[in-house]
Amino acid sequence: MRFDEYRDQTILITGAASGIGLAQVQAFLDQGARVIAIDRQPQPSCLPVTVKLSYQLADVTDAPALIAAIQAGIDVLGQPSIVCNTAGKLDGYQPTLATDLAAWQDILATDLTSQFIVTNKVLPAMLAQNHGVFVNMASIAGLVGGGGGAAYTAAKHAIIGYTKQLDLDYAGQGIRANCIAPGAIETPMNAADFAGDGKMAAWVASETPAKRWAQPQEVADLTLFLASRHADYIHGTVTPIDGGWLEK
Ligand code: NAI
Asked: Whose CA is nearest to atom 3 of ligand 1?
């Protein structure tokens, strides 16, 4: 997929060290964009050393550190016009009675509140330019139960609500916000499913109408479209990329 519009834009991506976020970083760099990449893990060796990439180490649950990392990236590459709020983690599929307050707050802080902090940091400059796009990572767990445990499912449902309200409040001022809801994507987050004899991964594939897992690049390709001007009239939506999981 080739887009001619990313060459002069700065993209901010959280969760940039692994899986879907890493694929998004690579996809936008391939399009010639500048990328501010944020993660608590160091820069992966597969990412190129280039003036177009500003890699910032930060824990997204640490608000001052996250805001400082965003600012450091902006100082190098300029204000982002596109944000991919991708950082997130699973909750071990635990029901509420197996979830203590600390675990609940950790999942909410990582998956949901980080998106709020990033958004409020970059939105004022976007409004000043009358242009800004958010691609927020939800999940099929944002639409149905069973894609995670109590905390993860609550966080992913909340991301969808937050994204709709964000879009509603600012759509008239040049802002677009949408969610992606991935199903089974083969990333380190799901390494446990592939461990051992890989029976769990095989079961997930067999339960998926498309009969396979997807690669993170497929989610990055969807991101490129959703962030582009070709999607200019797409507002406040949730796009599943799940091999048909939700149609059952
Ligand atoms: P991953 O585990 O491969 O990557 C997640 C990245 O987020 C890692 O680089 C990790 O270091 C970073 N991260 C996590 N907590 C952080 C923190 N506190 N501070 C800074 N960075 C932090 O996982 P994957 O699969 O790429 O997931 C990306 C997003 O996609 C997540 O929001 C996840 O919930 C969502 N998703 C993934 C699905 C899948 O099947 N892989 C399905 C549905 C949603």
From this structure: 19
